């Protein structure tokens, strides 16, 4: 009797949750365990920025994504991003990208950032891009008026 | 109820028709008024990206450095700079490069991360509230509360202690356990 009742109950539970939805949860859980290696990750983003038909929307999305991650992108990704900015004719985006990279160095900016500049220097010279320091953007330049005083 | 039915229906639609439903909803004039207001304020600024939630708004945030729209509208001088930007960037002067940056973005990282000093105001306000609370409690003690009960003076407290010892209060681990009843003094 008990077993019969338990069988009924499991049928009811399965019916109310829906087998497909339980399967979907499993799929989501599994997908969170990425098997991508660091090298594959770098290659993926480099190839993404190197696409000729990349547009401003895609470049900005990838940059926002990368700068939101707990990492500093490899110099080759940064270079690919700068070249994408050149193809998109967006100098401001290139500077913002570099500023974001510098910001993502966090407390290790003194060790990582000089290395990064050294690695990307040939590209900067080739494309005519200044580092944020060369534009004076390592220090605040303009003050913002308080919105309560406008 | 209707919206719940709609949600249920949507959940069982394949992804493609879900998108077309949303597009159709947008075309039938039921654009989210919140979004419509944003689009109205946009002016002729370029919408250049996704931003952080897909809305056409500008904000300087270090975690999403590329907002969905450019900061400045497309005024003739900005458009002239944009035309020049299409050529070799080495031909641009530093001033022009900075102007291009400020046309796309409001604040640099150094500016948005610079401390505002606002914590001083908050600390000051908090201390003012603390001081007021102390003065209010002093004033309450002086003018509102009754005086302390008579049993608070030393004589009454001693009498109370004596009575507790006589009653042998807490004789195992507590008060009376420490009292030497034979010698009439506290145990050493």
From TrEMBL, chain A:
Pathway(s): Energy metabolism; oxidative phosphorylation
SUPFAM superfamilies reported in the protein's UniProt record: Cytochrome c oxidase subunit E (SSF48479)
Keyword Phosphoprotein carried by entry: yes
Membrane topology note: Peripheral membrane protein
Localization annotation: Mitochondrion inner membrane
GO CC terms: mitochondrial inner membrane; respiratory chain complex IV
Keyword Nucleotidyltransferase tagged: no
Record's signal peptide: none
Coiled coil: none
Function text: Component of the cytochrome c oxidase, the last enzyme in the mitochondrial electron transport chain which drives oxidative phosphorylation. The respiratory chain contains 3 multisubunit complexes succinate dehydrogenase (complex II, CII), ubiquinol-cytochrome c oxidoreductase (cytochrome b-c1 complex, complex III, CIII) and cytochrome c oxidase (complex IV, CIV), that cooperate to transfer electrons derived from NADH and succinate to molecular oxygen, creating an electrochemical gradient over the inner membrane that drives transmembrane transport and the ATP synthase.
Family note: Belongs to the cytochrome c oxidase subunit 5A family.
Protein name: Cytochrome c oxidase subunit 5A, mitochondrial
Organism this protein belongs to: Polypedilum vanderplanki
TrEMBL record, chain B:
Transmembrane segments: 123-145
Predominant localisation class: mitochondrion
Signal peptide residues on this chain, from the entry's feature table: none
Function in brief: Component of the cytochrome c oxidase, the last enzyme in the mitochondrial electron transport chain which drives oxidative phosphorylation.
Family designation: Belongs to the cytochrome c oxidase IV family.
Pathway annotation: Energy metabolism; oxidative phosphorylation
GO CC, alphabetical: mitochondrial inner membrane; respiratory chain complex IV
Name of protein: Cytochrome c oxidase subunit 4
Quaternary structure note: Component of the cytochrome c oxidase (complex IV, CIV), a multisubunit enzyme composed of 14 subunits.
